[in-house]
C-alpha cells in the first residue's frame, strides 16, 4: 500500500516514473548513514523520453516549472529506489537545480520553484529545503533542467 507521500503524489495526479539509469559513469544515489544523495536527474517523462529539451528562453515560465517538476519526480523515484518508501524521508535537506539557459535569464529561481514546490506538496514542512539554482550552457542529452537532491532518511 502506498504511504502518505505517494498518496499526496496521487492527489496531485502524479505518478513516479521508473528510476532512470545513469547516462554516464556514476551511480544514481549514495547513502551514507542517514543522508541520501541523489545524482542529478533530468526531466524524463513517464515513457522515459525527455519531456523538455533546449534553452529556457525558448519556453514560458510555466513550461520551465513543469520541466523542473518532472526532474524532481525523477529525484523522488531514485529516493524510493534507495529506501523503498518515500515516508522514510525525514527531511529534504537540499536541492540543486541546473537550468539550460543563455547568458541572460532573470527567472531561474522561479523555474526551479517547480521542483521545490513539489517537495513541499509531497512532504509538507519536511519538504522545505536549502537550494541552489544555476544557469548552465548545456546539460546532458540537451535537457532543459537537471535537479539533484540531498535527503535525511530513516
From TrEMBL:
Residue ranges of domain Endoribonuclease L-PSP/chorismate mutase-like in the record: 7-147
Q: Output the SUPFAM superfamilies linked to this UniProt entry.
A: YjgF-like
Q: Which InterPro entries match?
A: Endoribo_LPSP/chorism_mut-like, RutC-like_sf
One matching Pfam family is YjgF_endoribonc
Signal peptide positions are none
Q: Which PANTHER family match?
A: ENDORIBONUCLEASE L-PSP_CHORISMATE MUTASE-LIKE DOMAIN-CONTAINING PROTEIN (PTHR43760:SF1), ENDORIBONUCLEASE-RELATED (PTHR43760)
Q: What is this protein called?
A: Endoribonuclease L-PSP
Q: Which organism is it from?
A: Blastochloris viridis (Rhodopseudomonas viridis)
Amino acid at each position: 500500500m502506498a504511504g502518505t507521500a505517494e498518496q499526496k503524489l496521487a492527489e496531485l495526479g502524479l505518478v513516479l516514473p521508473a528510476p532512470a539509469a545513469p547516462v554516464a559513469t556514476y551511480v544514481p544515489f549514495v547513502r551514507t548513514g542517514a543522508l541520501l544523495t541523489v545524482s542529478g536527474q533530468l526531466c524524463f517523462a513517464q515513457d522515459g523520453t525527455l519531456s523538455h529539451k533546449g534553452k529556457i528562453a525558448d519556453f514560458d515560465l510555466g513550461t520551465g516549472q513543469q520541466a523542473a517538476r518532472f526532474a524532481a519526480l525523477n529525484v523522488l523515484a531514485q529516493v524510493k529506489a534507495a529506501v523503498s518508501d518515500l515516508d522514510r524521508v525525514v527531511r529534504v535537506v537540499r536541492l540543486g537545480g541546473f537550468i539550460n539557459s543563455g547568458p541572460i535569464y532573470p527567472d531561474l529561481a522561479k523555474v526551479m520553484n517547480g521542483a521545490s514546490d513539489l517537495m513541499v506538496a509531497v512532504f509538507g514542512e519536511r519538504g522545505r529545503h536549502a537550494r541552489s539554482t544555476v544557469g548552465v550552457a548545456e546539460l546532458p542529452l540537451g535537457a532543459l533542467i537537471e535537479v539533484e537532491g540531498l535527503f535525511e532518511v530513516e
